[in-house]
User: Fold this.
Amino acid sequence: MTRVAAGLRGTAKRAQVDTLIVAIAFGTSNIGAYLLNVIAPRLLSQAQWGEFGSLLAILVVGAVPALGLQTFAALRVAKLRTGETTSTHLRDLPQRDLGQLFTMALTASAAVTGLLIAATPLLMMLLHFSTPWPTLCVAVALTGVTCNGIFLGMLQGAQRFGALARLIIIDGLGRTGAALVGLLVFGTPTGALGTMVVGTLLVATTGWLMCGRPPLVKRQPGHVSEVFHAGQALLGLVLLVNLDLILARHHLPPDAGGEYAVGWVMTRMAYWLPYAMAVVALPRLADAEQRRRVVPITLGFCAGLNALVVLVAVVFGSDIVTLIGGGGYAASTLPLWAFALVGSLLSLVQILLYSRIASADRRSTVLVWVAVGIEIALVTVWLHDSLLEIVTAAVATTAGLVLTSALIELRHSLLSRHGNFAIPQTPRL
Assistant:
């Protein structure tokens, strides 16, 4: 018993260290993104900044398949480690299996890039672009971004969190760092995105090298549905993170919409702050026994951190609003704690969603899209007359989603523990 307790303490300590390493990497990467959003408006005209901001939004949406690939690869590699070896070195795993992941990455990259190239004329018309080159640059940049999702997932699944942290930082340099260089050198959106293309392709090449140069192997057609399942679930979550801001811009006057955008920055901060916990926990969710232990522990730590974030927003709300939005918002009565609560609840949803993806439970992930529909209906039909009403709709929707997802997770855990429920396992590569 003492040996088991010592082992659990050692595992918890390693998880804390891994979480800290990954959190530092994400923080470093996000600094670059913040600098890009601060520097770009000062180097570009208002029209150019509007164009560049729209293109960056397309890049964010286009990167969702990379998140799906990363999640899929992390779970696949974690299962391979359980079945073949406990080594964290990818070279000790079957190269044919890793090669299939690499082939899938190239296939998905080609599909994402081809889809955006095909949509370029429509995007030019809808977003009033005068030339196709910026959109085409985004399309090619997504080749590297999508492909690198698999490499991030391989390192994550192998629990090589030090290497994962390095690749996260390199990825940030390749995207935002390269775009900043392009802005400074060329002073145009096309120049920035052109250098980003070079940066993202170099990042993908670096990821391939860090993962031991996996070979090209014929992929299994059935795995596409698994990647699609993870991708659509994460797409719903990304949409839910951004949905209330979109609805606020549609229903509120411009000034109120701008004030809501200030609060939404707090939502994103609260959502991303515990993200490293989810990254470190995901590989352990591939095993049903570990999942029953890891999910409650991770949720507990995440909830504790989120409670601190909400408390800070309650106490220092007005000061934080001024810090985010500037002196023009000094007299704002924005309920910042409500925005922090939305982001905090969404971070809990993310952990529960990862657990359901890991258990191949396709029905439960539909809940995210149900929540999207409910929030749209609440705001469109009823709660849209003020900023407070819209953020209330967001809080109610996300709270309901957390509660429902937690009950489903508890039910699956209890049934599997008593042997009355066989959690479906995803077939091996």
User: Anything to note?
Assistant: Residues 3-8, 420-429 have pLDDT under 50 and may be disordered. The radius of gyration is 22 Å.
